[in-house]
Design brief:
4 strands; alpha+beta; single chain
Amino acid sequence: MTLLEQLENNIETGGWKMKIAVASVGTDVAAHFGHCEKFTIFEVVDGEIVGEKSLPRFC
């Protein structure tokens, strides 16, 4: 499915989903992307955060 098809489907079904990755140090946003301890991943559905998980940095 192309990106355009996904967007059209989301509009038709009323569903809007997104995952946002934030470079983190502890519970704060990392000031420098390359020095982060982990990435906090937020799952957003229809503008509301519905999930959160942390992943270690891979560098």
